[in-house]
Amino acid sequence: MSDAGLLALCVLVPCAGALAVALLDRRPNLREAASLAAAAALVAAVAALVPPVLAGERPALKVLELLPGIALALELEPLGLLFALVASSLWFVSTIYSIGYMRGNDEPRQTRFYVCFALAIGAAIGVALAANLLTLYLFYEALTFVTWPLVTHHGDAEARRGGRTYLALLLATSMLFLLPAIAITWSLAGTLDFAPGGILGGRVEGWAAAGLAALYAFGIGKAALMPLHRWLPAAMVAPTPVSALLHAVAVVKAGVFCVLKVVLYVFGPGFGAQAFGWLPWVAGFTIVAASLVALRSDNLKRRLAYSTVSQLSYVVLAAALLTPLSLAGAALHIAAHAFGKITLFFAAGAVYTACGKTRVSELDGIGRHMPWTFAAFAIGALSMVGLPPAAGFASKWYIVGGALQAGHWAALAVIAASTLLNAGYLLPIVYRAFFVAPPAAVAAHGEAPASMVAAIAASAGLTVLFFFFADLPLALAARFAGA
Amino acid sequence: MREHLPALQVVLPLVAAPLIVLARSPRFAWLAATAASYGALVAAVLLAAEVAAGGTVSYAIGSWPPPWGIEYRVDPLSAFVLVLVALTASLVAPYAERSIGAEIAADRRYLAYAMYCLCLAGLLGMVATGDAFNLFVFLEIASLATYVLIALGPQRRALLAAYQYMLMGTVGATFYVIGVGLLYLMTGTLNLADMAERLHDVQELRPVLAALAFITVGMGLKLALFPLHQWLPNAYACAPSMVSAFLAATATKVSVYVLLRYYYTVFDPWALFERLPTGEVLIALSVAAMLVASLVAVYEPDVKRLFAWSSVAQIGYITLGIGLDNQAGLTAALAHLLNHGIAKGAIFVLLGGVALRAGAGALGVADLAGLAARMPLTALGLAIAGLSLIGVPGTAGFVTKWYLVLGALERGLWWLVAVVVASSLLAAIYVWRVVEAAYLRPAPAGAGRGEAPAPMLAAAMAMAALCVYFGFETSFNVGAAREAADFLTRGLR
Questions:
Q1: Is pLDDT above 50 for B196?
Q2: Pick from A370, A387, A477, B384: CA 20 to 30 A from residue A68's CA?
Q3: φ, ψ (nearest 5 deg) of residue B176
Q4: What's the whole-model pTM score?
Q5: Would the ipTM clear 0.95, i.e. be above it?
Q6: What is the pLDDT of residues A249-266, one digit of tens each?
Q7: Helix H or strand E encompassing A334
C-alpha cells in the first residue's frame, strides 16, 4: 500500500474499530476482540510508516478542499510519527487493561465506552497527522467532543459536574482564543500549512506577535497551562482507563504536540523565540505550582492529574526555549512521560479494582498485597522524577541541555526544584506501599485481574526499555529538532 | 417547457392549493403538497444549473416585456435561495403526514396542506419575481398562509401567537409597501432592475431615504431582526412542528433575501454603506441579537422556544455578515441562510418526533431526560445539528463562523471577532443543556421507548447528515454563496 494510503488508514482504522464495536454490542467477547484487533492494526499501520519517515520522506495526502485554499490534508513528519507511535501502542496496552477494569468493576454502557475510546484515538491520530492548522483544529475539537461521553461515563451528578468543567474550559479556550488565532494567521499569511521555518515570520511584530502567541498558547487548552488547567483534574471522574490513556497520553499530549507544531512550524525557530519569550515563565510557574498542589492532594488520581499538569509544562517550557536540544527533549518527553504516567494511572486503577481505595493515605503496606502493581508504580515514579533506568531520564537530560544551550537559568532552577517536588509527591507512595506496616483491620486482597496486571507490567517494561533502547525515539526527535 | 421554469416552480404549488381544497382528502392533500414540493425542487435545481451556465434568466409573464409587464428574474443569488426553499420543502413535506396527522384535527388537515402550498408558492414567488409590487403580493400570500399555519398549532396558545405574528407581520408588510410606493413615486417604475437604473437620476434623495428606512424596518420585522423579533419565539414554539421546521428554514431567510435584493441591486450599496450608517446599525443590532437572544436561550426551559431564541441569534449571524459589507461577510451571510436552515430544520423535525411520542403539548428541557436511551437516533440527530449551531469544525455552521471572523478581521473590528466566538460559546451552552439532558439524565420511569415514525426520522437525519456534509464538501454552500456575493458586489465599487 502506498504511504498516502497508509496515512488515511491510520485515521480510518480506529473509526472502523468503533463501528465494529458498535455492531458487536450484544457479544462482549467479540466486541473486545474488535477493539484489540483495531489497536493492533493501527500499530502495524503506524509502524509501516517508520522507514519512509526515517529515510527523510514526508508522506502526504490531500483528502479534499475544506474551504477555498484550505485543504483537509494529512502529512506525516517525525514528531507526528512519534506521537502516533506512542498513542497507538499504548492504545493496545490499555485496551487489555480496560477489559479487566471494565469487567472487574462491572461498569455500565461498555459498548459506548469502547466506541468513544476508539474514536478518541482516531481523533488523536488525526491531530498527529494534520498537515495544516485547520485540519489540526478539526481533529482537536473532535477529540474534545468524543472524550466527553467518556469523562461523564458514570452519568451521576459528580460526572455531570466534571463533564461541564471539562467541556466548558476546553471549548472556551479553543473557541475564544485558538479559532481567532488561526483566522488571524490565515489573514496574515494566506496559508495555514505547517512549514519548516514557519509561515508568520516578518508578518507580525512586537506586542502583536506576543499577543498572537498567547492566543495560541492559551487557546490550546489541552496543554493545561495554568490558569486554564482545571479541566484535567475535573476529567478524573472518568473510569481509570480513560484517565490513563486519554488524560495522561492522547488528549494532553495532543495539546502539547499542538504547541510544539505551532511554535516550530507556524512561528518558526527564530521568530518563535521572540514571540514566545514570555512562555517559559508561565510554563515554569505551572510546573512548580502544579507540583505543589500534587504534593497536597490525598486523592491518588488527583495527585497524578496535577503531576500531569506539571509534566506537560516541561514540554511547553522546552518548546518555548527553542534550542535544538530542548526541542528534541520536548519531543522525547511527549513519549517518555506517556509511558511513565500511564503506568502510574494503571496502578491507581488496579488498586481501585482490587480493594476500592482511592486515597494515598489508605495505601499503607499495600505493596505486600500487590507487589507487581507497586513495583511498576515505582518504575513509573522514577520516570516522573527523571532517574535512570526509566524513560523520564532521557528526556529530562535533553531538556536540561536545552536550557543550558539557551542560557535560561530560571528554567534550570525550575527543573531542579520540580525534580525535588516530583520525588516528594511520588516516592512517599512507594515507601508507604512497601515499608509501612498495613493497618491491622484490613481484608486480605490480591492483585487486580490478570489482564490489568499484564498491562501494567507491559507499560512499566516499556518505560524501562525506553531508557535502554531509545534509538527510534531519539532518531525521530533529532529529525524533528533539526539537530 | 424549459423556458417556463421561473414561472412553473411558483405555479405548481399555487395550483396545488385549490386542488387540495376541492378534494378535501388528507391523503390526496399530502400527496399533492409533496408532489408540488418536489416539482419546485426540480425546477429550482434546473434553474440554478441554467443560471450557473448562462447567467441571469429573465422571464416575461404573459409575454409582456419588462418593464411594462411583470418580470421574473433569476440570478445567482435568487437561484441559491430558490434551491434552499425548495430543498427544505422537499425534506419537510414527506414526513408531514404523520406529524400533521397527530397534531391537527382530521377535518382541518387538508387546510394545513393547502396553506403550506400557498406559503411555499409565496416564498418562491418572492424570490423569483423581479417586480416590487408583485413581491408584495407574494409576501402577503406567504404571510397570510403562515398565520393560518401557526394558528393550527395543537395548543390554544397558538391562536395568540398567530395573532401576535399577524399584527407584527402586517406592520412589516405595510412598511414594505409604503417604501415601494415612495420608490414608485420617485422613479415611476415597479420593475426592480428598471428602478435601479432610474434611481441614478433622482435628484431629491429624502423620499428615497425614507423608502430605504421603511423597507429595512418592514423586512426587519419579517426576518426577526433584533429588536423586531418578538413574534418569532411564540410563533415557532406554538406552530405544528412541521410548520416550525419549514418556517425556521425558509421564511426569515427569504426576507433576508429581499433585503439583500434592495440593498445591492436597487439602491447603490456604496452610498448605502459608505455614506449612511447602514453597516454600523446592522452590526449593532446583530451583536445585540447574537448575545441577548443566546443568553435568553441559555435560560429558556421550553425546548422549542429555546431553539426559536437560537434562531433569533443565528439570524444575527446573517445580518452581521451583511453589515460587514465585504466579500467574506456576505459569503458568511448567504452560506448561513442554508447552513442554519438545515440545522434548525432538522432540530424542529426531531422535536416534532419527540412531541409525537411524548404526547405532551409543551416540551421542557427536563422532558428530554434519557432521550438517548429512548430514541437513540433522535438524540444523535439533535446532537449533530446542535454541533452545527455551535459551529464546530466539520459541520456547516463552522463555515459561517470562519467567514464571519475573517470578515471582521478584514474590517479591523477585533472586538467583533470576540463577539462572534463568544456567541458561539453561548450556543454551546444552550445546545449542551439539551445534549446533557438527553445523554446523562436518567429516563423518567414509565417513559415509552421507540423512535419517531420512519419518514420523520429519515427527513431529519437527512438534514443532520447535510449539516456534516456541507461542513466538509463546501463547494455548494460556500461556492454558491461566494458566487452570489460576487454577483452582488461585482462592479459596484
A1: yes
A2: B384
A3: -60, -45
A4: 0.92
A5: no
A6: 889 999 999 999 999 899
A7: helix A324-355
Secondary structure of B422-437 as H, E, C letters:
HHHHHHHHHHHHHHHH
Spatial distance between the Cα atoms of B375 and B368, rounded to a whole number of angstroms: 10
Q: For B409, which of A138, A152, A184 is closest by C-beta distance?
A: A184
Tell me what pLDDT residue A184 has.
Answer: 92
- Determine, for residues A171 and B474 on separate chains, whether the beta-carbon distance falls below 8 Å: no
Rounded distance between C-alpha atoms, residue A139 and residue A121, angstroms: 10
Which of A62, A66, A144 has the highest number of chain B CBs within 10 A, making it the mutation to test binding with B? A66
**Which residues have CB under 8 Å from A73's CB, separation 6+?**
A60, A61, A62, A63, A130, A131, A132, A135, A193
Are B409 and A155 a contacting pair at CB < 8 A? no
Which residues, listed in sequence order, are joined to residue B72 by a DSSP beta bridge? B59, B129
- For A64, phi then psi, to 5°, come to -165, 170
Cell matching residue B75:
440570478
Direct distance between the N- and C-terminal alpha carbons of chain A, in angstroms, rounded to an integer: 31
**How much is the pLDDT for B427?**
93
- Rounded to 5 degrees, φ, ψ at B190 are -115, -10
For residue B493, the model assigns a pLDDT of: 40
| Per-residue CA distances from A285 to A225, A282, A311 (Å) | 9, 5, 12
Where do the H-state alpha helices sit in A356-449?
366-369, 371-385, 391-406, 409-435
Give residue-wise pLDDT tens across range A52-77.
Answer: 888 888 888 888 888 888 889 999 98
> Residue A158: which of A236, A241, A242 has the closest Cα?
A236
CA atoms of A183 and A426, how far apart (whole Å): 42
End-to-end Cα spacing for chain B: 38
Q: How many CB atoms are located within 10 Å of the residue A68 CB?
A: 11
Tally helices (H) and strands (E) across chain B.
21, 2
The angle, 0 to 180 degrees and rounded to 10, between the axes of the packed helices B241-260 and B76-103 is: 160
C-alpha B377/C-alpha B65 separation (Å) is 53
Q: Which residues of B touch A175 (CB under 8 A)?
A: 421, 424-425, 428
For chain B, say whether A48 makes contact (Cβ under 8 Å).
no
How many Å apart are CA A169 and CA A173, to the nearest integer?
Answer: 6
Q: Which of B428, B209, B407, B233 is nearest to B315 (CA)?
A: B233
Task: Find the closest chain B residue to A190 by CA distance.
Answer: B406
CA A441, chain centre distance (Å): 39
Q: If you search the block for the grid coordinates 460587514, which residue do you land on? A: B324
The rounded distance, in Å, linking the Cα atoms of B37 and B120 is 8
Residues A291-321: pLDDT tens digits?
999 999 888 889 999 999 999 999 999 999 8
Quickly tell me which residue has 454490542 as its cell. A25
The CA-based dihedral angle spanning residues A433, A435, A438, A440, taken in that order and rounded to the nearest 10 degrees: 180
pLDDT digits (tens, 9 = 90+) for B411-450: 888 899 999 999 999 999 999 999 988 888 887 776 667 7
Partner-chain contact B393 A141, CB within 8 Å: yes
> Higher-confidence residue: B318 or B450?
B318
Please judge whether B425 and A171 are an interchain contact, meaning their C-beta atoms are less than 8 angstroms apart.
yes
Helix (H, G, I), strand (E, B) or coil at B131: strand
CB of B417 less than 8 A from some CB of A: yes
- Cβ atoms of A366 and A429 closer than 8 Å: no
Contact A341, A378 (CB under 8 A): no
SS3 state of residue A359: strand
Residue A14's pLDDT is what? 92
Under DSSP, is residue B96 helix (H, G, I), strand (E, B) or coil? Answer: helix
pLDDT digits (tens, 9 = 90+) for B107-147: 888 888 999 999 999 999 999 998 889 999 999 999 999 99
Residues contacting residue B57 through CB under 8 Å, at least 6 positions apart: B5, B6, B47, B50, B51, B73, B74, B75
Q: Which residues contact B463 (CB under 8 A, 6 or more apart)?
A: B91, B342, B343, B345, B346, B349, B385
Contact by Cβ (8 Å): B325, B211: no
